[in-house]
Amino acid sequence: MNIQSEIHKAQLFQNLELLANQVMEGFISGIHKSPFHGFSAEFAEHKIYNKGESTKHIDWKLYAKTDKLYTKRYEEETNLRCHIILDNSASMYYPEVKQLNLDNLNKIGFGVLATAVLMQILKKQRDAVGLSVYSDSYSYYASEKSSERHHQMLLAKLSEIGMDTKPAKETETYAYLHLIAEKLKRRSLVILFTDMFQTAVADEKLFEALQHLKYNKHKVVLFHITDRETELSFNFDNTPKRFLDIETGAHVDLYPDAIKEAYEKEVQEYFNAIKLKCAQYKIKYVEVDVRGDFSKVMNTFMVERKKIT
Known about the structure:
Largest sheet: 6 strands, mixed
Order of helices and strands: HHEHEEHEEHHEHEHEEHEH
Helix content: 25-40%
Strand content: 15-25%
Structural class: alpha/beta
Distance between the termini: 43 Å
């Protein structure tokens, strides 16, 4: 049996921690080691005591054995506060996938697995992580903590997502981003996974909500999840098709080639507007494709993490 192949085929929501570890180890194992040192209960190493330093952390037991003075150095228990926001609206369940696994993801599957991977990295660094999930309601909020119990609680919540066969039809991204921004009192790295599709308000209102996330000097990263092949390039064979809006229920019957050029222009203009607003608000914008790997997510996280710590 090819174990590597079997892991890739493992069903996402039944094997989330396993798959998250697989992705993390494949990309960042051995690359990132926390450079921050404080005085938690996690021992890191000894160093020779220098005259004039505090004697508080001298290892007296080691002194008794060696007759030399050493101090204990500890790795800081919490280096960073990170809050991850996941859009769980109906449009995130595109494209329709019968069995989600590492090689076969829709947008919500990509968002869930990417969230779990970042949680695994944060756990290794003993960083505090929180989670917000929204759709037509602000359905879940957990503040930033670094305990194992908290980590398992968040994984359990992520495992529930995507198993819902009737996701919320409407998305009030703008309203819930405002609420989340109000909840985040202490400076954090805020990460948002969303497809940025919504019809409830004008785009300007949505951009205002993004700006609100910068409240309290948070560092904000927007991962814009798309199925680039169909949502941006509109690559469908030119046979009669019915296109259904899974949030409003509206549909249109047409030949794809009849609107391909106009569609691509409109979508590109919208995406450019998002990028421009993010640049104005100093929000890191990263487009990610559900058919791609997770390198963009992890590389971006590593860079932005260094900027805030």
